[in-house]
Each structure stands twice: as C-alpha cells, then as structure tokens.
Write a structure and sequence with these properties.
Blueprint: E1 2-5, H1 9-21, E2 25-28, E3 32-36, H2 43-48, E4 55-58, H3 61-74, E5 83-86, H4 89-99, E6 103-104, H5 112-116, E7 128-134, H6 140-147, E8 151-162, H7 167-177, E9 179-183, H8 187-196, H9 202-207, E10 209-212, H10 215-223, E11 231-233, H11 239-250
Parallel strand pairs: 1-2, 1-9, 4-5, 4-7, 5-6, 7-8, 9-10, 10-11
Antiparallel strand pairs: 3-8
Helix pairs in contact: 1-11, 3-4
C-alpha cells in the first residue's frame, strides 16, 4: 500500500520523510505552492495599530512563517502587550517559538469552533482581532467574532499558487505505486484533488481511504462521493498525528 500526500510545501515534505521512516511508502504531490501574501507589507502597520490587550489569531504555520520573516526584515517584533492565538497545538508551539510569546489554542477541538470556545473569546466587545492567514480560507471565525462584538482585520500572509500536472501520467503512477490512501488537510486541497482526477477515475479515487484532519473536510468528502466508512479523521492536524493514524491503518 502507498499513501498519496497532498499537503503542500515543507510540511508535506516533512510528512513524506516521517512516513518513509515509519516504513510507509508514499508519493508527495501538492496541488499548491505557497508564496508571500499580497498584504504582508501592511503587517507591521496593522500590528502597530492594535491596542494593548487586543488579539492576533494565526491560522497556520505558514502564516506564522511569512509573518515572522516580514517582521524580522523590517525591524519589528511581536508585541508583548497583545494576546496570541492559534488554531491548534502544532501551530501554537511554532508561533510561540517564533514570537517568543505565549500562544493560546484549543486543546480538544483544533479548529475555528475550538478557538471560539476559549474563555478569552466569549466577550469580544471593544476587542480588535488581527487574523493572519492565506488567501481565501474559511470565514467562520471572523463572522462569529464580529457577532460577539469584535472588530476584525485580516492580513493575507501567504497565497496558494496552483501547480500544474499531467493528470493521466500522475494517476497512472498512483495506481502502479499501489496508492490506497490519500491525505487531505484542507477543503481547498480536496476540491483540487477531485477536480484533477478525470471522470473515468473518480470511482477509483473514492475507493481510496481518505485521511483528513476535521469533520468539516470529512463532510465535504462525503458530499462529493466518499463513503463514510472510507474516511478517517486524524485526532490532530500535525504530521506526527497523521503518521500515527496511518501506522494504525496499515498495521
């Protein structure tokens, strides 16, 4: 059995290395590359405009990476008088290491709903929240935070650039390699995967075990044709959890 990894850039490469060490054959085929966002130059000014006690919410390690590099290049620092949040443990730990600040995250539910359940998010009147993310993305957190009284600002720290492949050649490779499982870590990737595979190979694709990181992605997969029993949700979104999930799957 082989695993198709669609997680982009460094995170995808690191996942492939971890699976190799675990003895699990894999193919890494990201549908996006990540590059600097169109609003990064505005980041230092946006942070400067925040009031003491305001919030910064970072949705991914990629957002942390591009934001930190920009602040370092322009001589700015992550402010001590703000509160910092991340969507999950992996991003929070990386954010904390780069910002040298405490970063809050939900322990049980690593998604927007989990962040919104945190005590600090219950009363947001007069709070400014700066969201650091990629282009597009889910609006749920911003919408709910506004309903609770927050003023929302968003900085696009990175953008996803589609990578072009020859579909027939890739799918032939996947089949010859014995791909039986596919790792999908975002709704954008799932849409790209389904769009990439021709109609004649859709049945084969949806016979593969889908390993994902949230109920929301799983529900979308069911909507586009996967059977629920063919979907496994990793307990967390980090690479170590994905490797553990796949190790149990292949045991």
């Amino acid at each position: 059995m082989a695993v198709l990894i669609t997680r982009p850039d460094e995170a995808g490469k690191q996942l492939a290395e971890k699976l190799n060490k675990a003895g699990i054959a894999n193919i890494h085929l990201p549908f996006f590359s990540l590059s600097a966002g169109r609003e990064l130059n505005e980041l230092p000014n946006r942070i400067s405009q925040l009031n003491a006690g305001d919030y910064i919410f970072c949705v991914s390690k990629s957002a942390v990476k591009f934001a930190t590099e920009t602040l370092q290049a322009t001589g700015f620092h992550w402010r001590e008088d703000l509160l910092y949040f991340a969507v999950g443990q992996g991003t929070a730990e990386y954010f904390a290491s780069q910002a040298e600040r405490a970063v809050h995250y939900p322990f049980q539910q690593e998604n927007s709903e989990g962040v919104l359940s945190l005590t600090a998010m219950q009363t947001l009147a007069d709070k400014n929240i700066l969201i650091l993310r990629g282009n597009g993305g889910r609006e749920y957190f911003a919408e709910q935070a506004k309903l609770r009284g927050a003023t929302i600002n968003v900085v696009e720290c990175y953008q996803r650039l589609p990578i072009q492949y020859q579909a027939e050649a890739q799918i032939d490779l996947w089949k010859r390699a014995g791909v039986q499982s596919v790792i999908v870590t975002s709704t954008e990737i799932l849409h790209s995967l389904v769009d990439f595979v021709p109609v004649r190979d859709q049945t084969w694709l949806k016979s593969c075990q889908l390993v994902t990181i949230s109920r929301r992605i799983a529900n979308l997969a069911i909507a586009v044709g996967w059977q629920p029993e063919k979907i496994i949700i990793s307990p967390k979104a980090d690479n170590a959890s994905l490797v553990e999930t796949l190790t149990l799957l292949t045991a």
